[in-house]
């Protein structure tokens, strides 16, 4: 790869590896394929883990193709090219299995030299990720590294007898004790991550929980099922957030926003995106307010000022909602933060305005309205008081 392309690839690949625990390899040396096979193959029934197959798909430059390979264990590899360099993502899984499923595969391929313990140990070492999410990831990686790359077509290549391998029992799911135990473990890790304010760990465990629900079918769902799933997740997160010490009024505000988005969503992807956004917002709030050591009352007021600055906030109405008097709210807020609620709100609004001034071409009236101030002249006056210069001069200085 060119130096500039390689730098972009390294950054993007590193992010994907860190977040999804996926291997991403560029085969640019002769001995890499053999090392890759030795590292990732557990049994010779995995047909694509051979030098012949991997050489076939990595040595013939096909710029418009993404190969999606599936072996007898329902393990996958994705292969595509960036500037004639073959990139391999995986191995990974999109399915979970029980001992009954393993016996079906072992019988189908007459496997006698591999124990089920080793088989499940191998599968559990691989990341679980939805096929649709994987392809979005690949598309983003390619677009980031090579924006001018031609549109790529996905070609599925199966190294198994699909009809014989997938029995009808997969559709009914009578034996799922192992899956429930695994899901319980993921759920506990998910709750613990929320309580710590660790959004990355929480979302990772959420993905694993969602994979469990899909059993051995290709991941897919209906809009109504996802709404139900989002409600269950929302309840779990709410309880974990309250247990972490986040004020109830903040919990209700974030939760209500997700409820509204989920109810109006027109696609499964919208619901999944909103669910992850909710988790990040909860974790950010937990992480932030744990560090600040403020009282519940002040934490609640700070959340309103930091996240709803664009609304017409009346301090008296906020005090009523928090079930305290206006004077008490002002007194406690000043004691803990060193400033009044109105002053903090103004600073929060002007901070957001400064970001818009330096990053957009919005007019003064548009920026003023977007930070909760209807009068542009008053906005200019407040901004100049806090920053020592007019919004126009600020924009000119930071965009020159």
List the helices and strands and how they pair.
Elements: H1 3-20, E1 24-26, H2 32-40, H3 51-59, E2 65-70, E3 75-82, E4 85-93, H4 99-108, H5 116-124, H6 131-145, E5 153-158, H7 162-165, H8 169-172, H9 177-196, H10 199-213, H11 223-244, H12 248-264, H13 268-292, H14 296-307, H15 315-321, H16 326-337, H17 341-359, H18 364-370, H19 376-387, H20 391-398
Helix pairs in contact: 1-6, 9-10, 9-11, 9-13, 10-13, 11-12, 11-13, 12-13, 14-17, 17-19
Question: How would you sum up this structure, described in words?
Answer:
This protein has about 400 residues and is α+β, with helices and mostly antiparallel strands. It folds into 3 domains: about 5-170, no CATH class; about 180-295, no CATH class; about 310-400, Arc Repressor Mutant, subunit A. Helices cover about 65% and strands about 10% of the residues. It is built from 20 helices and 5 strands. A 5-stranded mixed sheet has the order 1-4-3-2-5. The longest helix is centred in the C-terminal third of the chain and has 25 residues, at about 270-290. The radius of gyration is 26 Å and the shape is globular. Keywords: DNA-binding, Transcription, Transcription regulation. It comes from Clostridium boliviensis.
